Amino acid sequence: MNIEQLNADYGIADQLQFSLGQGDFPIIKINNAHAQAMISVYGGQVLSYRPTSAPEDLMFISEQAYYQTGKAIKGGTPICWPWFGPDPESLGRASHGFVRNRLWTVQSTSTTPSQEIKVKLGLVDTPETRDIWPHSFDLSIEFTIGSTLKIELITHNTGEQPFSITQALHTYFQVGDIAPLRVKGLEGAAYIDKVDGGVQKQQSGEIAIAEEVDRIYLGVSPALAVEDPTLNRRIEITASGSQTAVVWNPWVDNSTKMADLKDDDYQKFVCVETANAANEVIEIQSGTAYSLTADYRIVQL
């Protein structure tokens, strides 16, 4: 992608510009009246978002993240699509699908009457993707950068047959310290405990993280929150098009095994993912579309 051409076609004076980031991937830098943000065109993911009223960034990015073609960037908002988790057909395909390690196309940038900035990126099927997943699609993701961060992932079925997907916005939230952190809004919910062999359990009280956590919560509320007393803030998550949520923290052993995480990084983030996962399989008919949306707000305490 030619950075000069991207700026000529999609730049917004004094508010949005393109540049080359790590790995020479195109980066969109946004600085408006509401917030500062950075979006990677590779992976179609937010790397940074900080409202003007917030002293700390919303996002966690590993200092050892890969910025290499074919690898996912560890942190921010990676996209799991068209499946979440292991290959659902056990064909040896990569976990979490194939869009988080591809270069997306810039489709549009704009400002709203309330001076938010919208950025739309897209991916369509190619012979390569059809070898991996034999369906025709037009996938778009729209970011709205304002006093909140809104992400909308829209799947259009452009083929002649229906197809089914699972998906997730695999969001890494920066936290001050994992120990006192609490995830709220899932009290009493059933969940699949992937650490315990997929056994279904029921959440008792708020979620505290003191060990490896990898859970798919079922039938969830559209409103969740991450209470972070160390950073003196609450992250409010409002979802639509989703009835499952994933909570993940790799804890000590997995952090030390992952080359793109530092050994102590598990203390610095939690993933609370807006998803269609487990038994929430979305069937999309020919010529129709499905939207998955998450809106993130930082409230200082």
From TrEMBL:
<dbReference type="GO" id="GO:0005975">
    <property type="term" value="P:carbohydrate metabolic process"/>
</dbReference>
<feature type="active site">
    <location>
        <position position="273"/>
    </location>
</feature>
<dbReference type="GO" id="GO:0047938">
    <property type="term" value="F:glucose-6-phosphate 1-epimerase activity"/>
</dbReference>
<comment type="similarity">
    <text>Belongs to the glucose-6-phosphate 1-epimerase family.</text>
</comment>
<feature type="active site">
    <location>
        <position position="170"/>
    </location>
</feature>
<dbReference type="InterPro" id="IPR014718">
    <property type="entry name" value="GH-type_carb-bd"/>
</dbReference>
<dbReference type="GO" id="GO:0030246">
    <property type="term" value="F:carbohydrate binding"/>
</dbReference>
<dbReference type="InterPro" id="IPR025532">
    <property type="entry name" value="G6P_1-epimerase"/>
</dbReference>
<protein>
    <recommendedName>
        <fullName>Putative glucose-6-phosphate 1-epimerase</fullName>
        <ecNumber>5.1.3.15</ecNumber>
    </recommendedName>
</protein>
<dbReference type="Pfam" id="PF01263">
    <property type="entry name" value="Aldose_epim"/>
</dbReference>
<dbReference type="InterPro" id="IPR008183">
    <property type="entry name" value="Aldose_1/G6P_1-epimerase"/>
</dbReference>
<dbReference type="InterPro" id="IPR011013">
    <property type="entry name" value="Gal_mutarotase_sf_dom"/>
</dbReference>
<keyword id="KW-0413">Isomerase</keyword>
